Amino acid sequence: MREQRNKYKTELHLAAASKTAGSSRYIITELTEEMFLSYPAHCLKKILLGNNSISSVHPKSFHYLSSLEVLDLANNSITLLYPNIFTQMPGLQVLKLEHNHIAIINPDAFAGLSNLRELYLNHNYLTFINPCIFMGLNNLTTLALNNSYITTLYPDAFKGLTSLNELYLGDNNIATIHPNAFKGLTSLEKLDLTNNNITIICEFTFDDLTSLSVLYLQDNNITEIPSQVNNFLSDKWLSLDIDLSNLKITGGCDDDDDY
To answer: Is the pTM of this model over 0.85?
Structure first.
Protein backbone atom coordinates (compact mmCIF):
# COMPACT_ATOMS: atom_id res chain seq x y z
CA MET A 1 0.00 0.00 0.00
CA ARG A 2 2.85 2.37 0.84
CA GLU A 3 4.45 1.60 -2.54
CA GLN A 4 1.18 2.48 -4.29
CA ARG A 5 0.94 5.84 -2.48
CA ASN A 6 4.52 6.77 -3.38
CA LYS A 7 3.85 5.92 -7.00
CA TYR A 8 1.25 8.67 -7.19
CA LYS A 9 2.69 11.26 -4.81
CA THR A 10 2.20 14.86 -5.86
CA GLU A 11 5.15 16.45 -4.02
CA LEU A 12 8.85 15.84 -4.46
CA HIS A 13 11.06 17.11 -1.61
CA LEU A 14 14.73 17.30 -2.58
CA ALA A 15 15.53 20.42 -0.59
CA ALA A 16 18.61 20.20 1.61
CA ALA A 17 18.04 21.10 5.26
CA SER A 18 21.34 22.97 5.40
CA LYS A 19 24.71 23.34 3.73
CA THR A 20 26.75 23.11 6.90
CA ALA A 21 30.15 21.45 6.81
CA GLY A 22 30.12 17.81 7.72
CA SER A 23 26.45 17.32 6.88
CA SER A 24 25.68 13.83 5.59
CA ARG A 25 22.73 15.16 3.55
CA TYR A 26 23.25 14.62 -0.19
CA ILE A 27 23.63 17.96 -1.95
CA ILE A 28 22.42 18.27 -5.55
CA THR A 29 24.78 20.23 -7.82
CA GLU A 30 23.16 19.84 -11.23
CA LEU A 31 19.85 19.07 -12.90
CA THR A 32 20.21 16.81 -15.92
CA GLU A 33 17.77 16.21 -18.75
CA GLU A 34 16.81 12.86 -17.21
CA MET A 35 16.51 14.18 -13.65
CA PHE A 36 12.76 13.74 -13.29
CA LEU A 37 12.00 11.00 -15.83
CA SER A 38 11.50 8.35 -13.14
CA TYR A 39 8.89 10.41 -11.29
CA PRO A 40 5.14 10.48 -12.03
CA ALA A 41 5.19 13.65 -14.10
CA HIS A 42 1.47 13.45 -14.88
CA CYS A 43 0.51 14.03 -11.23
CA LEU A 44 3.56 15.77 -9.73
CA LYS A 45 2.40 19.19 -8.44
CA LYS A 46 5.30 20.49 -6.36
CA ILE A 47 9.10 20.13 -6.50
CA LEU A 48 11.26 21.58 -3.72
CA LEU A 49 14.96 21.86 -4.57
CA GLY A 50 15.98 24.72 -2.27
CA ASN A 51 19.20 24.92 -0.25
CA ASN A 52 21.24 22.74 -2.56
CA SER A 53 24.28 23.80 -4.62
CA ILE A 54 22.70 23.59 -8.05
CA SER A 55 24.75 25.56 -10.57
CA SER A 56 23.93 23.70 -13.78
CA VAL A 57 20.39 23.26 -15.12
CA HIS A 58 19.92 21.44 -18.41
CA PRO A 59 17.62 23.36 -20.81
CA LYS A 60 15.25 20.37 -20.86
CA SER A 61 15.33 19.45 -17.17
CA PHE A 62 11.69 20.45 -16.69
CA HIS A 63 10.27 19.50 -20.09
CA TYR A 64 8.25 16.56 -18.81
CA LEU A 65 6.50 18.19 -15.84
CA SER A 66 3.26 19.32 -17.44
CA SER A 67 1.24 19.17 -14.19
CA LEU A 68 3.70 21.04 -11.95
CA GLU A 69 2.30 24.01 -10.00
CA VAL A 70 5.15 24.94 -7.63
CA LEU A 71 8.90 24.87 -8.39
CA ASP A 72 11.30 25.93 -5.64
CA LEU A 73 14.91 26.49 -6.73
CA ALA A 74 15.77 29.07 -4.07
CA ASN A 75 19.14 29.21 -2.33
CA ASN A 76 21.25 27.57 -5.01
CA SER A 77 24.06 28.70 -7.35
CA ILE A 78 22.19 29.06 -10.64
CA THR A 79 23.79 31.71 -12.87
CA LEU A 80 21.55 31.92 -15.94
CA LEU A 81 18.15 30.95 -17.29
CA TYR A 82 18.03 29.39 -20.76
CA PRO A 83 15.33 30.27 -23.32
CA ASN A 84 12.19 28.11 -23.03
CA ILE A 85 13.54 26.32 -19.97
CA PHE A 86 10.11 26.31 -18.29
CA THR A 87 7.95 26.17 -21.40
CA GLN A 88 6.62 22.64 -20.79
CA MET A 89 5.04 23.57 -17.45
CA PRO A 90 1.88 25.46 -18.48
CA GLY A 91 0.26 24.93 -15.06
CA LEU A 92 3.11 26.42 -13.01
CA GLN A 93 1.82 29.01 -10.53
CA VAL A 94 4.80 29.68 -8.23
CA LEU A 95 8.46 29.89 -9.31
CA LYS A 96 11.05 30.55 -6.61
CA LEU A 97 14.51 31.55 -7.86
CA GLU A 98 15.59 33.86 -5.06
CA HIS A 99 19.06 33.70 -3.50
CA ASN A 100 20.88 32.39 -6.56
CA HIS A 101 23.66 33.86 -8.73
CA ILE A 102 21.50 34.73 -11.71
CA ALA A 103 23.04 37.53 -13.76
CA ILE A 104 21.42 36.80 -17.13
CA ILE A 105 17.82 36.03 -18.02
CA ASN A 106 17.67 35.00 -21.66
CA PRO A 107 14.76 36.07 -23.86
CA ASP A 108 11.88 33.59 -23.68
CA ALA A 109 13.14 32.18 -20.37
CA PHE A 110 9.59 32.45 -19.04
CA ALA A 111 7.82 31.50 -22.27
CA GLY A 112 4.77 29.32 -21.78
CA LEU A 113 4.13 30.30 -18.15
CA SER A 114 0.79 31.95 -18.80
CA ASN A 115 -0.62 30.72 -15.46
CA LEU A 116 2.30 31.84 -13.29
CA ARG A 117 1.15 33.97 -10.35
CA GLU A 118 4.28 34.45 -8.23
CA LEU A 119 7.85 34.93 -9.45
CA TYR A 120 10.72 35.44 -6.99
CA LEU A 121 14.01 36.65 -8.45
CA ASN A 122 15.22 38.64 -5.47
CA HIS A 123 18.75 38.36 -4.07
CA ASN A 124 20.44 37.64 -7.40
CA TYR A 125 23.11 39.39 -9.51
CA LEU A 126 20.86 41.08 -12.06
CA THR A 127 22.05 44.51 -13.23
CA PHE A 128 19.23 45.23 -15.69
CA ILE A 129 15.89 43.93 -16.90
CA ASN A 130 15.59 43.26 -20.62
CA PRO A 131 12.56 44.94 -22.21
CA CYS A 132 9.59 42.60 -22.66
CA ILE A 133 11.34 39.78 -20.74
CA PHE A 134 8.10 39.08 -18.85
CA MET A 135 5.80 39.12 -21.87
CA GLY A 136 3.20 36.36 -21.69
CA LEU A 137 2.98 36.30 -17.88
CA ASN A 138 -0.56 37.64 -18.06
CA ASN A 139 -1.63 36.22 -14.70
CA LEU A 140 1.43 37.19 -12.66
CA THR A 141 0.39 39.05 -9.49
CA THR A 142 3.68 39.18 -7.52
CA LEU A 143 7.17 39.93 -8.86
CA ALA A 144 10.17 40.23 -6.52
CA LEU A 145 13.37 41.75 -7.93
CA ASN A 146 14.69 43.33 -4.76
CA ASN A 147 18.21 42.99 -3.35
CA SER A 148 20.08 42.74 -6.64
CA TYR A 149 22.25 45.19 -8.60
CA ILE A 150 19.75 46.73 -11.03
CA THR A 151 20.81 50.26 -12.03
CA THR A 152 18.28 51.32 -14.67
CA LEU A 153 14.64 50.56 -15.43
CA TYR A 154 14.27 50.70 -19.22
CA PRO A 155 11.09 51.24 -21.29
CA ASP A 156 8.80 48.20 -21.42
CA ALA A 157 10.74 46.47 -18.62
CA PHE A 158 7.45 45.10 -17.30
CA LYS A 159 5.42 45.00 -20.50
CA GLY A 160 2.63 42.43 -20.51
CA LEU A 161 2.19 42.23 -16.74
CA THR A 162 -1.39 43.40 -16.85
CA SER A 163 -2.41 41.51 -13.67
CA LEU A 164 0.59 42.49 -11.54
CA ASN A 165 -0.42 43.62 -8.02
CA GLU A 166 2.93 43.78 -6.20
CA LEU A 167 6.35 44.79 -7.54
CA TYR A 168 9.41 44.73 -5.29
CA LEU A 169 12.48 46.65 -6.50
CA GLY A 170 13.96 47.77 -3.19
CA ASP A 171 17.64 47.45 -2.25
CA ASN A 172 19.06 47.73 -5.75
CA ASN A 173 21.24 50.44 -7.33
CA ILE A 174 18.48 52.04 -9.38
CA ALA A 175 19.39 55.59 -10.37
CA THR A 176 17.36 55.97 -13.57
CA ILE A 177 13.70 55.18 -14.18
CA HIS A 178 12.55 55.72 -17.73
CA PRO A 179 9.10 57.38 -17.89
CA ASN A 180 7.71 54.30 -19.68
CA ALA A 181 9.24 51.71 -17.36
CA PHE A 182 5.92 51.09 -15.59
CA LYS A 183 3.73 51.55 -18.64
CA GLY A 184 0.72 49.23 -18.71
CA LEU A 185 0.82 48.23 -15.02
CA THR A 186 -2.77 49.30 -14.46
CA SER A 187 -3.40 46.62 -11.79
CA LEU A 188 -0.35 47.44 -9.67
CA GLU A 189 -1.29 48.18 -6.07
CA LYS A 190 2.09 48.05 -4.31
CA LEU A 191 5.43 49.38 -5.58
CA ASP A 192 8.58 49.17 -3.47
CA LEU A 193 11.56 51.29 -4.59
CA THR A 194 13.15 51.53 -1.15
CA ASN A 195 16.90 52.04 -0.73
CA ASN A 196 18.06 52.86 -4.24
CA ASN A 197 19.95 55.79 -5.83
CA ILE A 198 16.94 57.64 -7.26
CA THR A 199 17.36 61.42 -7.31
CA ILE A 200 14.71 62.55 -9.82
CA ILE A 201 11.33 61.15 -10.81
CA CYS A 202 10.24 62.21 -14.30
CA GLU A 203 6.73 63.16 -15.26
CA PHE A 204 4.52 60.39 -16.65
CA THR A 205 6.49 57.80 -14.60
CA PHE A 206 3.44 56.74 -12.60
CA ASP A 207 0.70 57.70 -15.06
CA ASP A 208 -0.46 54.15 -15.78
CA LEU A 209 -0.45 53.09 -12.11
CA THR A 210 -4.13 53.84 -11.65
CA SER A 211 -4.61 51.15 -8.97
CA LEU A 212 -1.55 52.10 -6.89
CA SER A 213 -2.23 52.40 -3.16
CA VAL A 214 1.18 51.70 -1.58
CA LEU A 215 4.43 53.34 -2.72
CA TYR A 216 7.73 53.03 -0.87
CA LEU A 217 10.44 55.54 -1.83
CA GLN A 218 12.33 55.95 1.43
CA ASP A 219 16.13 55.79 1.57
CA ASN A 220 16.71 57.38 -1.82
CA ASN A 221 18.15 60.80 -2.71
CA ILE A 222 15.08 62.31 -4.32
CA THR A 223 15.37 66.08 -4.61
CA GLU A 224 13.11 66.81 -7.55
CA ILE A 225 9.57 65.76 -8.47
CA PRO A 226 7.62 67.19 -11.43
CA SER A 227 4.35 68.85 -10.50
CA GLN A 228 2.42 66.21 -12.45
CA VAL A 229 3.90 63.43 -10.31
CA ASN A 230 3.31 65.45 -7.15
CA ASN A 231 -0.34 65.94 -8.10
CA PHE A 232 -0.72 62.24 -8.87
CA LEU A 233 0.64 61.28 -5.46
CA SER A 234 -1.45 63.89 -3.68
CA ASP A 235 -4.65 62.81 -5.44
CA LYS A 236 -4.09 59.21 -4.33
CA TRP A 237 -3.01 60.20 -0.80
CA LEU A 238 0.25 58.33 -1.19
CA SER A 239 2.98 58.98 1.35
CA LEU A 240 6.53 59.14 -0.03
CA ASP A 241 8.16 58.83 3.37
CA ILE A 242 11.09 60.99 2.25
CA ASP A 243 12.63 64.24 3.42
CA LEU A 244 10.57 67.02 1.84
CA SER A 245 12.67 69.91 3.16
CA ASN A 246 14.86 70.10 0.04
CA LEU A 247 12.31 68.73 -2.42
CA LYS A 248 11.90 70.78 -5.58
CA ILE A 249 8.61 70.68 -7.49
CA THR A 250 9.39 71.31 -11.18
CA GLY A 251 7.51 71.69 -14.41
CA GLY A 252 8.69 68.41 -15.89
CA CYS A 253 11.55 66.12 -16.84
CA ASP A 254 12.96 65.66 -20.30
CA ASP A 255 12.39 62.30 -21.93
CA ASP A 256 16.00 61.65 -22.86
CA ASP A 257 16.54 59.30 -25.78
CA ASP A 258 19.70 58.04 -24.10
CA TYR A 259 17.74 56.21 -21.38
So the answer is: yes
